[in-house]
Amino acid sequence: MVNPWLAMETGTDPAERTRSLRHAHEVFLAGGPVTHPVRQVVADSWRRSASARATLDGPAPIDLDEPELRAYRDGHPLARAMPVFRDLLGSIAHDGAHVLAVCDPQGRMLWVEGHPGVRRHAERMNFVPGARWDERHAGTNAPGTALAADHAVQIFATEHYNKRVQQWTCAAAPLHDLRTGRLLGAVDITGGDHLASPHSLALVQATARAAEAHLASYTKYAKCAKYAEHPAPTAHLTVLARDEALLTTDGRTLRLGRRHSEIVLLLARHPEGLTGDRLATLLYGERDIRPVTLRAELSRLRHVVGPLLDSRPYRLTRAVQTDADTVETDLTAGDLPAALRGYRGPLLPRSEAPGVRRLRSLLEDRLRRSVLTHRTPETLRLWADTPWGEHDLEIWEALEATARPGDTAPASTATRLRAAYALPAPSQRPRNTPAPSLRTGAPPRERGRDRPDSDGELSWPVTRTLVPPTP
């Protein structure tokens, strides 16, 4: 079976594949369907890039200037893994005319190292420290797509969405905290067409695994008491920005169906257990559901997770920590930037289960209130530069008020959103009128554009009900 994460099968003519992919890319940009030979992972990424209006022929934006970058990456967990990256990929990058890059979960490049000539060439497209290379800003590329899909991937030449990047080939793998499953960033190697081989993908995957193991064994990784005081859980559930949760237990990872994801999440939040009636209410609300329906779901779940599920009352037999718990722990500890970096998106975004909707709303509201309370440029920007924050007028107006001299982007975005919402500037609103609580839904003139799912695993709705101002 062909590995869908590899760019080319052995024996494929790179020149012919470049031409056929370029034609498919032109057809897609002209409004046509994605055609052969585009891989599914690339087709999904092109759609996400187009939906986000990623640049088609421009350089990636610079998100962090030199002082901000230096302070940020010095305190980043991946700084401790740089010796591993340099040992395993550094010499290969230098000797093989490649560049080694490491980015954070938002796709911001923290380190770009390697062959000096190749680095100078890469600088022309802003493949430099501090630049933003997630799909929303730079289009399809290996580190950005690895973060979006949460999987190691190769991107070959004209598979890149941005035409300026189509002379490059790259392979990247995401990096996680092995104790919590939290996404830390990605490691990438970028160079010429010869990187489109199984060896480069295997190399970055092995490097990522080695770095994760190094971080897990590094005692100073728990740099504050909140990590040291709490032992690692025996199981972990990934639910942020996922419709189908990932359950990691006993060294294996299971992808749960949507209903099973909801059940495990609710039981993880109620370690004391839930009666059948209470669990049914959290799952189905006031709908008239026969008891046998829930029992059948739990029976199917037990076949998947085995002895992890117990009954009378329904409960999990081990502690299960979620990535949402990690975000809440960071918030409680007062580490808002860490909480925002860990918040990959809404909790089980498509779930309509009342208990899940409540958890999702509570976490998002708590994060958003903290951002507006702190009102620092860093945390406001972290929220604004997300699919759920890009239409949040209150956030953009706060960012406008805290912008540095010469930074006109927040003001222009706030002006555009005010026009879309048909609202005056804050100075023109009646005195003592609360700021409008315009949440993360698209403005009326921009609604109807749902961000497409990548492969059924990662998605979030961007069209929500507009919350009117509090009277």
Could you tell me the CATH topology label of the largest domain.
Answer: Beta-Lactamase
- The whole-number mean of residue pLDDT values reads 85
Protein structure class? alpha+beta
Amino- and carboxy-terminal Cα gap: 60 Å
Order of helices and strands: HHHHEEHHHEEEHHEEEHHHEEEHHHHHH
Enumerate the spans where pLDDT stays under 50 for 5 or more consecutive residues. Answer: 219-233, 447-471
How many structural domains?
A: 3
Helix content: 40-55%
Sheet with most strands: strand arrangement: 2-1-5-4-3
CATH architecture of the largest domain: 2-Layer Sandwich
How many distinct helices? 18
What is the approximate shape? globular
Region (Disordered): 421-471
Pfam family, one: GAF
Biased composition (Basic and acidic residues): 444-454
Protein name: Transcriptional regulator
Task: Note down, in words, how this protein is organized.
The chain has 471 residues and is α+β, with helices and mostly antiparallel strands. The chain folds into 3 domains: 14-221, Beta-Lactamase; 235-322, Winged helix-like DNA-binding domain superfamily/Winged helix DNA-binding domain (Arc Repressor Mutant, subunit A, Orthogonal Bundle); 375-471, no CATH class. Helix content is 42%, strand content 11%. The protein contains 18 helices and 11 strands. The strands form 3 sheets. It has a 5-stranded antiparallel beta sheet with strand order 2-1-5-4-3, sandwiched between helices. The protein has a 4-stranded mixed beta sheet with strand order 8-7-6-11. A two-stranded antiparallel sheet has the order 9-10. β7 (246-249) and β8 (252-255) form a beta hairpin. α14 (336-342) packs parallel to α16 (377-384) and α16 packs antiparallel against α17. It is globular and about 65 Å long. Residues 421-471 are annotated as: Disordered. Residues 118-214 form the GAF domain. Residues 444-454 have a biased composition (Basic and acidic residues). This is Transcriptional regulator.
